[in-house]
């Protein structure tokens, strides 16, 4: 059951990359797995990943530098939270512009050949101020 949720989450992330970024990412790719790895359209993908909290680096111009460092470490994937407290500071208000521009973030990742594994909010296990 957990594995099915993981694959569903990864499939959703791949779909979101294409939908949110408006890029030419093929969101119809088939994600499967076996006991060794994930597969995308039958091609084995070994994930070497690091965590990237884009909301802790609120300067989109510096995202490329981080992805260059991922590549230098031979990582092919970044794992991210979609921190809804950052994008929706109050009910009914949504902000995906400027430093909160997820589309730009995903396009930058694509430019550097970094896959994204997303973990959607609303809860993120981090210190959120008022502590």
TrEMBL record:
One of its GO terms (molecular function) is hydrolase activity, hydrolyzing O-glycosyl compounds. Residues 1-22 form the signal peptide. The keyword Signal applies. Keywords: Signal. InterPro entries: GH, Gly_Hdrlase_35_cat, Glycoside_Hdrlase_35. Residues 38-125 form the Glycoside hydrolase 35 catalytic domain. GO terms for biological process: carbohydrate metabolic process. Pfam families: Glyco_hydro_35. PANTHER family: BETA-GALACTOSIDASE RELATED. Belongs to the glycosyl hydrolase 35 family. This is Glycoside hydrolase 35 catalytic domain-containing protein. It comes from Umbelopsis vinacea.
């Amino acid at each position: 059951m957990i594995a099915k949720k993981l694959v569903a989450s990864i499939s959703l992330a791949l779909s979101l990359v294409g939908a949110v970024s408006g890029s030419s990412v093929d969101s119809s790719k088939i994600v499967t797995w076996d006991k060794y790895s994930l597969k995308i359209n039958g091609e084995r993908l070994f994930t070497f990943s690091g965590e990237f909290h884009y909301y802790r680096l609120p300067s989109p111009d510096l995202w490329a530098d981080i992805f260059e460092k991922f590549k230098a470490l031979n990582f092919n994937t970044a794992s991210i939270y979609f921190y809804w407290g950052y994008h929706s500071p109050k009910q009914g208000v949504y902000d995906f512009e400027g430093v909160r521009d997820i589309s730009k973030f995903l396009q930058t990742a694509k430019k550097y050949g970094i896959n994204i594994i997303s973990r959607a909010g609303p809860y993120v296990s981090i210190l959120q101020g008022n502590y």
